[in-house]
Amino acid sequence: MSEASLLIEAPPEGGQNRRGFVLHTLRHRPAAVIGATILVLVALGAILAQWIAPYPLHQQVGPVFAHPSWHHLLGLDDGGIDMVTLLMWGARVSLVVGFAATLVSMAIGGAVGVLAGYFGGWVDTVLMRITDYFLVLPDVPLMIVVAAIWGPSLFHIIIVIGILLWTSTARVIRAQVKSVRERVYVKRARALGAGHTRIVFTHVLPQVAPLLIANTVLTVAVAIFDETALSFLGLGDPSTTSLGKVIENAFQRAAISAGAWWAIVWPGVLVTLIILGCSLVGGALEDALNPRLRVAHLGARTFRLRPLVGRGQDAL
Amino acid sequence: MSVDATVLEVEDLVVRYPIHRGLVGAVTRQPRRQVHAVEGVSLSLQKGEMLALVGESGCGKTTTAQAVLRLVDPVAGAIRFDGRDLVPLGSRDLRPVRRRIQVVYQDPYESLDPRFRVKAVVEEPLLIHGLGGSKAERMERVRDALARVELSPPELFLERFPHELSGGQRQRVAIAAALALEPDVLVADEPVSMLDVSVRAGVLNVLDGLRRNGLAILMITHDLSTAARFAQRIAVMYLGRIVEEGPAAAVVRNPQHPYTKALLSVVPRRDPRDRQRPQILQGETPDAVFIPSGCRFHPRCPVAIERCSIEDPALARPASAEDGHRAACLLLPARS
Fold it and tell me: Is B220 helix (H, G, I), strand (E, B) or coil?
């Protein structure tokens, strides 16, 4: 064992221990539990919108911009549609876009990271320079341009966000793969005659998968935010109701001058909550699963001195 | 032993690692430097024999092993396995050879994938080479391999993860995984140096038993007493060269090269009357980037003369040694 690894907590090995570690982290980090609760509630509302939404989505149920009341807890929008109903359906679209775009970016980022880290050399150099280009591109202007050219559709939005968000994933995964590929058991597999595909899928990928998952949750937040921004700018799919679209509609129909703050504030609050939930959960997962952050001096969120392995609590 | 029994032969192996000079170095035209890890090493290994490659850290013994396993590319030389040179072979042609040359690494904590159960570790080589037929047949071979390394009953270990095993048990699992393919040659890179002293003997006895059954073992170690006890022949390496080579008993009882003598003088002895004054070598092993001229041991040699810094001695049989015992030193009168 190297000197540095003596300073970190005994690394979790094997499936059961790691699962225990995640549960332990969630239990000892109330922020993560709050985040998870928010996400679960929002997801439930979105998934069950069809059955539990109080009113139909496309039906005027009262006067335009009606104040919040007992019948309509969050008020009505510019078309007289119930805001609670709108938020449920909007969250559904936003979550779908968020997760689908994240899936795209994880596939690209994971593949680039694994290839660059595993093969090294010129493959690494080329892929990381490409990553650098994507990293310095200003995301939102480029998304606007691409969405404008391709035309507004949910699928295009997903692809555009997906191909712009993979850079940080690629870098994190690459760093971890670089360390895993130097492990003796990877060398041993090579001496055994195992091919690259086999080594990547049986030895490397399972080791970086937890990191990929933590990264996914963090990326979902960004994807949802980007989708909201694009929809608000009028580049979203006009036939669907995402949270950004709800805000845009209200904004276009002069909700502000009409004093109907609820038509803009509630969807904004919901987007904020979703992003907050993702960040809290993702941050905690990353702390728990990224071995680099487990070294005390690197873990900004968890800074504390830790006892050296094998010595008592009073060693440090 | 007859010449036919030779399974592995290394001839004039040279391995160098380039040092990156960086952009500034390239622009200012600094010379390209290299680490001369292995410089002209020749070895031969026979069926049922354990050859111990002994030397200090950084003398090139692990690089030699890596070259034999074809994990690093030699600059020059030949590695003949069953009479066939492995150096020019590509990865596709190497696959059948890899099955027959297996390796056990130094660190049993690092060399097993922490997420693999014991049965998966031992089964993996079979899957890679598509051997063992059905799942049940493979499991039979896994059990068999575990029994051969004295992990019995195998059922007790099959479902365990590496972190549930002791260091000695892990190393036995690693050996079992190497044995699953029924190799002809086993390269053991310091197989016991990371283990507790109390379990070393057990692991070494396992290796010794395998050797008796015909396995050829290339053991890399820095522990001369282990080599003396278990190996049939010993090759002493210094700075990428073999400086002395011969039957284990001869090398230990009648060392010829001053470096071997120095190494042996610091091995603890049981009998106090037998103790010699430890001969501590001056200085450190020179950087393998800047190899000394002449005999590469001369800057640290207690008996060096001026000629040693000019002339590079070759391995030869000294007059005072028995057959098959060779050393590379100018001061040893060669047998005429």
Answer: strand
Helix or strand holding residue B265 (H, E): helix B258-265
pLDDT at A114: 93
Put simply, the answer to whether B99 touches A193 (Cβ < 8 Å) is: yes
- Cβ pair A192:B102 closer than 8 A: yes
ipTM for the complex shown: 0.75
CATH match of A15-57+74-295 with 1.10.3720.10: yes
* Chain B residues in contact with A198 (beta carbon < 8 A): 128
Ranges of each domain in chain A: 15-57+74-295
Measured CA to CA in angstroms, residue A115 lies from A100, A201, A283, B184 at distances of: 23, 12, 25, 34
Contact A184 B114 (CB under 8 A): no
Single pTM value for the model: 0.74
Tell me the pLDDT tens digit for each residue of A9-28.
Answer: 444 444 455 566 666 666 67
pLDDT at A294: 53
Contacts of B71 in chain A (CB under 8 A): 187, 190-191
* Residue appearing with tokens 């009648």: B254
Contacts within 8 Å (CB) and 24+ apart, B199-205: B199/B166, B199/B167, B199/B168, B200/B168, B200/B226, B202/B150, B202/B168, B203/B168, B203/B171, B203/B172, B203/B175, B204/B229, B204/B230
Task: Determine the residue of chain A that is closest to B183 in CA distance.
Answer: A192
Looking at chain B, which residue has its C-alpha nearest residue A206? B115
Domains of chain B from N-terminus onward = 3-327 (3.40.50.300)
Residues B2-40 pLDDT 10s: 445 888 999 889 988 888 777 777 777 777 788 888 888
To the nearest whole Å, the CA of A131 is away from the closest chain B CA by 22
pLDDT, chain A, mean:
79
Q: Are A230 and A284 in contact (CB under 8 A)?
A: no
Q: How far apart are CA B137 and CA A70, in angstroms?
A: 71
Strand-pair category, B216-221 with B50-54: parallel
* pLDDT score, position A154: 84
